[in-house]
Amino acid sequence: MSALDVVLSIFDILLGVIMVVLFLVQEGNDQGMGAISGASTDSYYSKSKGQTLEERLKQATKIVAVLFAAMSIVLYMAVTKGF
């Protein structure tokens, strides 16, 4: 393994750990019995949902997941092709 492979491996592991932590910190998406009865969810919270911490955590998880997938592909190519 070259130095580039080691650096890419460490970065890939860090992205994986960050993704798991972000996933575990998020709250569940349970709506309880309100989903069955068709209860309305139009509230101040649902209207300002994009600005909440939960929404930012979801967005960060998506970004880290894409970075993790891209880094894994780059790492695979680096190890097999020998960049």
Quickly count the domains. Answer: 1
Question: What is the strand tally?
Answer: 0
The poorly predicted ranges are none
Going by helix content, strand content and strand pairing, the class is mainly alpha
Kindly report how far apart the N and C termini lie.
Answer: 11 Å
Mean pLDDT: 83
One letter per element, helices H and strands E, the order comes to HHHH
> Helical stretch count?
4
Rg measurement, Å? 19 Å
- Characterize the largest beta sheet: strand count, sense, and whether it forms a barrel: none
Query: Helix coverage percent of residues?
Result: over 70%
Amount of beta strand: under 5%
Layout of secondary structure:
Layout: H1 3-25, H2 34-37, H3 44-47, H4 53-82
Brief characterization of the structure:
The protein has about 80 residues and is mainly α.
